[in-house]
Amino acid sequence: MFIQKLHKLQAQWAKEVVIPQESRLTYFLSRPMLVLDIQYEGEKAYLGASLLSPNQAPIDLIGQSQAGLAYIPGLFCFREGPPLLAFVKKIFQHKALPRPALLIIDGHGIAHPQKLGVATWLGLRLQIPTIGCAKRSLLPYHGELGEERGSTLPVMLQGEQVGEVLRTQEGINPLFVSAGHLIHLEDAHQIMLYLPGAYRLPDALRQADQLARAAARKERLERVISLGECEAEF
Questions:
Q1: What's the number of domains the chain is made of?
Q2: CA separation (Å) from 22 to 26, 98, 105, 209, 229?
């Protein structure tokens, strides 16, 4: 019964997603972006983020929180979403940090069987543009992806393109990119290619991942802002 309620909530929220038809790429590239990742030790979530602002050095942040719900296939957003939400809200409240105009999350946006991955869940809760960027697809796709950087294949759901397979570096395995909320897929595509990096993941996503892993190992980190405990919101 509880799982059925979550599926109904997921379907309801999916109808509230807004994917604009016009590009706002210039706006996004001129504003701060927050890149997020999460790691777990049992039911403890450790969070890492890289805050990118034009013409400024990235700001690294870490935090920790209780995980959301236990893992349920297809409902992962209810596990990862609550600690990410608490972490981002704490970043928003930090007076010394610029407020990001865009969130990029290691996870899926609407390229999800219920069109509600964690990037979409978070975008809806905060009413902020979000991009999902994942290392594997939850949906089928067809065709042969070109080897050159920037090559794409569409990821489809019920006849609608909901994401893309994106080659971020020549000859390297692709990423799976989708709009989460309040952003066009083409903008998501361009932003992922805009972010610097020599590997499959842009540097900012690699850094967020490494920060979250280091926080989980309780390593002593220099030049990193620790936000401490973030109370998960469900």
A1: 1
A2: 12, 26, 22, 31, 38
Residue 37 in contact with residue 209, Cβ under 8 Å? yes
Phi first, then psi, for residue 227 (nearest 5°) are -95, 5
Round to whole Å and give the CA distance between 221 and 232.
Answer: 23
Q: Name the β-bridge partners of 38.
A: 47
Q: Give the end-to-end CA distance of the chain in Å, rounded to a whole number.
A: 18
Rounded CA separation 172/178 (Å):
19
Convert the pLDDT of each residue in 132-168 to its tens digit: 999 999 999 999 999 999 999 999 999 999 999 999 9
Distance CA 134, CA 137 (A): 7
CATH number for the domain including 218? 3.30.2170.10
For the stretch 61-93, pLDDT in tens is 999 999 988 888 888 899 999 999 999 999 999
Which tokens hold the place of 156? 């489809």
In what order do the strands lie in the sheet containing 152-157? 152-157, 160-166, 175-181, 130-134, 102-106, 33-41, 44-52, 59-66, 225-229
Predicted TM-score (pTM) of the model is 0.96
* Domain enclosing residue 192, as ranges: 20-138+148-229
* Cα–Cα distance, 37 to 183 (Å, whole number): 20
- Domain-located, residue 5: no
Maximum Cα–Cα distance across the chain: 51
